[in-house]
Amino acid sequence: MATSATPARAGGAATLLDPAVLARIGSLDLVARTVVDGFLGGLHRAPALGASTDFAEHRAYLPGDDPRRVDWRLYARSDRLHVKEFEADTNASVTVLLDVSKSMDFARGGRPTKLRYAKMLAASLLWLARQQRDRVGLITFDSAVRDFVPASGKHLPMALHALDRAQPGGAGELTAPLRASAEHFRRRGIVVVISDLYVEPEAAVDAVLQLRNRGNELLLLHVLDPAERDLPLDDATGFRDLETGDALPVVPKTARAQYRALLDAHLAALAEVTNKRGVLYGLFDTGEPLEAALFRYLAARQRLEHRR
């Protein structure tokens, strides 16, 4: 997926951030740091200041300041009035729901599997969310919820550990696990669903919309291997379903044309339905740099802020 918002990167940085290179890094924590640092380009976002309980700094007292924020102990030592400033509590929770169904365990051409790519994507999003001082959480699922890390400002290490241990599961399903996941959301925030979306577009969006309780902003990230989009059949004479094991004989040239037509229609329908129903949607292949997804996350966060 092309995006005009993605800045150009130097050749060395582009190589470092290539998914095939990142997939060789064992630690998802290190992958996430590398991706987010590259995304931010060395620019450090100044934290917002507000009225949470996390102390940030002192500044000189100004007429009109709340006397309750005066640091009287500092006044006793310095004989000067200073007020305490605090880092704002954004009240945003960011939860990633990751599809770990069997169909995600697919790769061709030396690229990472869809699941490995999705793990790196999830880790990078969670790391960036913590840079924004948001609470982060994680849910993994196939036909049911497999792992749950509640959103918290302290749960990034726990979420990354859960990502590390996630393995391909069984057959995939969206409706039931997402309905069960919706019960865990107690605060308004951003919910990110990462999946290969092998379901009907309307059914996929209906399932995701179950997560819109309490005004959550929804972000749906669709991950495919380039081979799933181009279908390079060569001399292949059949397919095997990754989840059921069923075999299907094919005539290569005919099957390729039919498959591409069906996939194009599927992707167009997903884009149309998500746009119509207010779900941010992004299509990614496993050879694509991860930064584009971070722009999608920041767009979702901005929309959430504007609705407050």
UniProtKB/TrEMBL annotation:
Pfam families for this protein: DUF58
Signal peptide: none
SUPFAM superfamilies: vWA-like
Residues annotated as domain VWFA: 91-267
Protein name: VWFA domain-containing protein
